[in-house]
Every structure is written in C-alpha cells, then in structure tokens.
Amino acid sequence: MKAMVECMKLEPKKTICDPACGTGGFFLAAYDYLSDNYRMNREEKEFLKKETFFGNEIVASTRRLALMNLFLHGIGEITGESVISPNDSLVSSPSKTVDYVLANPPFGTKSSMTFTNDDNKKVKDDLTYNRQDFWVTTSNKQLNFMQHIHSLLNSTGKAAVVVPDNVLFEGGAGETIRKKLLMNTELHTILRLPTGIFYKQGVKANVLFFDNKPAGEDVKTKEIWYYDLRTNKHFTLKKSPLSFKDLEDFIKCYNPENRFDRKETWSEENPEGRFKKFSYEEIAEKDKTSLDIFWIKDKSLTDLDNLPAPEVLAGDIIENIEAALESFKEINDFLED
User: Fold this and answer.
1) What are the counts of helices (DSSP H) followed by strands (DSSP E) for the chain?
2) Is this prediction's pTM over 0.90?
3) CA 172 to chain centre
4) Closest to 195 measured CA to CA, from 32, 13, 318
5) Strands 16-18 and 185-195: what pairing?
6) Angle subtended by helix axes 173-184 and 141-152, to nearest 10
7) Are 227 and 251 in contact (CB under 8 A)?
8) Rounded to an integer, what distance in angstroms lies between the CA atom of residue 27 and that of residue 226?
9) CA–CA dist 47, 288 (Å, integer)
10) In 3D, which of 67, 63, 69 has the Cα closest to residue 80?
C-alpha cells in the first residue's frame, strides 16, 4: 500500500476514495504520506481531517475498525456524517467524483447475495448491476469494481487498483472493459506481483495505475509500462515476506516525480530487465486485448542445473495447485448456481 501511495504522489486538498476500504489501510497510508511530505496550513489540515477521505465497507465489524483507525489518526468526527458508508458501492452511480482512487477490491469473480427461500433454505443469487454508467453488465465482481472505479474519477482523476490475473485476460465482458479502459483512460503502468501478496495463497495480483482523461475519439493509452516482480522472484508470508524495500526499484523505475521521464531496464543486452514498455498497437493485436504479458524467462524452466531450493520448488507447486483449486471452485459455484 505504501508503495502504491508513493507512486501516486498525492497532493493536499484533493479527495481520496476507496470503494471497498476494509479497515482503512489505504486511507492511513495516504494520510501518513500527506503528513510526512507537506507542511500544510490550517485550511489544508482541516480539509485532510474532514473532506479528503470517503469510502464504503459493507461488513459491519470491519467498518467499525476502519472508523476507529481513522478517528485515532484525527480523521473524521464522532458525530456527523460518516466518511465510510455501509452501503454496497456497486449498487448505484457515485454521488460525487474524486481526485484519487486507491483500492484493493475483494477477491472473487462473482457478485452474489444469500437469502432464505420459501423452503427455508439458504440460496445464492448472482448480482448484476444495471448501471447506465457501466460499459457492460456482468456478475463478475472484479470487473464491476473496475467500471465503478472509472466512474468515481473526475476528469483528471488518478487510480491505483489491485486486481487478480483474470482481469488482465478474461474474455467477454473482461475484453470489453479492457478496451474501454485503454480508450478512455491512460493506463500507463502495471505492476505484476507474486502470488499471495494481496490475496490468498495461489492467487496472483497486479496493480493497475491509470489516469482518467476527457472524453474523445482518440485512444488515451499510447503505451503501458510493465514491472515484473513475479518471474524468478520467491516470497513467502512467513520466511521471506515482501517488504517495502523489495518495491524500491519499482518506485525508482516508476519515477513519481516525472513518470513521463522513464527508461526501460530491459534490453536485448539485459533480457532480465524487469521494466519494459509495450505500445498500444502491440497490446491491441493480442488475443482478447490481453494485458497478461511476460518477457523474462523462467529460470526454473530453462536452467535445470540451477534449480531453486527444494522448499522453493515445493512452495511453487503448492501455489499452482491452490490457484487451480480456486479456479475449479469458481467453476463449481457457477454450475451449482
């Protein structure tokens, strides 16, 4: 979260939203960044306390923790309108737009609600959100959050969003949303993370950075810069967790001070460079406009004389099995519904 906030280069007196804020982690990281990097006057401090943050959290106990965390940091008031709504953020169009969205929407491809039927049995029903501001109607939760986040941004708004791999390559509604995102925003950076960082073990995550742009007929995304922190990288939650230090090279490559002045670390002479750009034309030619791109060779597949340690290999196998199991569970849930 801290690395995402560092890259966004937040400014005082601007609004920040997280439509699925959990315990408020992004809000607190943003608060710390603004407090540490700016000498704010009284007006800016008052804005930071009362008008900067707002979001949604539908789990009551989690929302209470978030409100407590914010209040302990001097954000919000005990009385008055809450900065965190208990409502489902996907139900309706946002009442206002914001300058920044920082989000890690809940994992799970299908939106559903559980209710008791006439036979007193609990059943699930898929949720589809028929919103005029959405590009496409789908029950896929991740894809709905991507559309909602776009709707949340004002004309110059910026977003950093954590998504699982399926958002990058899924067909149907996924392809439509990717094309719209490339057309209507500048999707300029994708950070490819290892498994188990934001989601459960076996699920790979990415961070998408994009800036909203005024409507027009021309494609807003000209090129996408990728940083691969996944290939030939091995992190575990206990023995070798991902730390902020592991992300310092990405932040340096991202260049928050001026992201228009970047340099690839990949080249033919350095094929293991982790920072590489792809043009819109290269991406548009891919099947389903897939954003699922890699270029570094996996050493475990090419260098049999220098395989990773046995425990690393075992961990990789477990992760792949768990990822496959998650996919089968989703298929089973779909068939049962």
Assistant:
1) 11, 11
2) no
3) 20
4) 318
5) unpaired
6) 20
7) no
8) 26
9) 43
10) 67
- Distance from chain centroid for Cα 280: 21
**Residues in CB range of 91: below 8 A, 6 or more apart:** 129
Confidence (pLDDT) at 32: 96
Which residue in 51, 159, 186 sits closest to 103, CA to CA? 159
| Interior/surface letters 259-292, b for 16+ CB within 10 angstroms, e for the rest | beebeeebeeeeeebbbbbbebeebeeeebbebb
100 forms beta bridges with 16, 158
Token representation of residue 203: 């699920």
For the record, the structure tokens of 336 come out as 């049962």
Q: How far is CA 283 from the centre of its chain?
A: 20
Nearest to 190 by CA among 150, 218, 163, 220: 163
What residues contact 291, with CB distance under 8 A and at least 6 apart?
168, 169, 178, 190, 224, 283
Q: How many CB atoms lie within 10 A of CB 307?
A: 12
The pLDDT value recorded for residue 113 is 46
Q: For helices 60-72 and 25-37, what crossing angle results, to 10°?
A: 10
* Structural domains of the chain, with CATH: 2-20+89-108+135-303 (3.40.50.150)
Instruction: Look at 8 and 125; give whichever has higher pLDDT.
Output: 8
94/160 Cα distance (integer angstroms): 18
Q: Are 166 and 174 in contact (CB under 8 A)?
A: yes
Cβ atoms of 103 and 72 within 8 Å: the answer is: no
Location of structure tokens 């073990």: 201
Report angle CA 107, 112, 117 to the nearest 5 degrees. 145
Note the Cα 226 to chain centre separation in Å.
14
pLDDT single digits (tens) 126-160: 577 889 999 999 989 999 999 999 999 999 999 99
- Structure tokens given for 129: 């959100």
Instruction: Assign 119 a pLDDT band (cuts: 50, 70, 90).
Output: low
State yes or no: pLDDT of 30 exceeds 60: yes
Q: What is the pLDDT of residues 259-300, one digit of tens each?
A: 999 999 999 999 999 999 999 999 999 999 999 999 999 876
